[in-house]
Amino acid sequence: MEYAELYRKRIRNLCKARGISINKLAAMSDVKQSTLDNIVRGLTENPRIKTLHKIALAFNMTLAEFLDFEELNNYSFEDETEE
């Protein structure tokens, strides 16, 4: 799984677990609907940390908590090439 897919999946899973739509998350996080859609659909592969922070706060999490999940913690960059 590619790196960007990990946090897309994290957002989807947290929304599903909490019964929150992407539209509602956009309103709760004060992140533009189009920005959030682009992240979740994979059009934005490297969202700004400020954006991820706002999303984390909407889930009532710190940014550290939002980014602390097994798939991301176990991710290896060794297979990626530098751009």
Q: How large a portion of the residues is in β-strands, by DSSP E?
A: under 5%
CATH superfamily caption:
lambda repressor-like DNA-binding domains
* Helix coverage percent: 55-70%
The CATH topology: 434 Repressor (Amino-terminal Domain)
The mean pLDDT is 92
Sum up the overall morphology in one term: globular
Number of helices: 6
- Stretches with pLDDT under 50, minimum 5 residues: none
- Output the radius of gyration: 13 Å
Overall description:
- The chain has helices spanning 3-18, 22-29, 33-41, 49-58, 63-67, 70-73.
- The chain starts with a helix and ends in a 10-residue tail after the last helix.
- The radius of gyration is 13 Å and the shape is globular.
- With 83 residues, the protein is mainly α.
- The mean pLDDT is 92.
- It has a single domain (3-73), classed as 434 Repressor (Amino-terminal Domain) (Orthogonal Bundle).
- 63% of the residues lie in helices and 0% in strands.
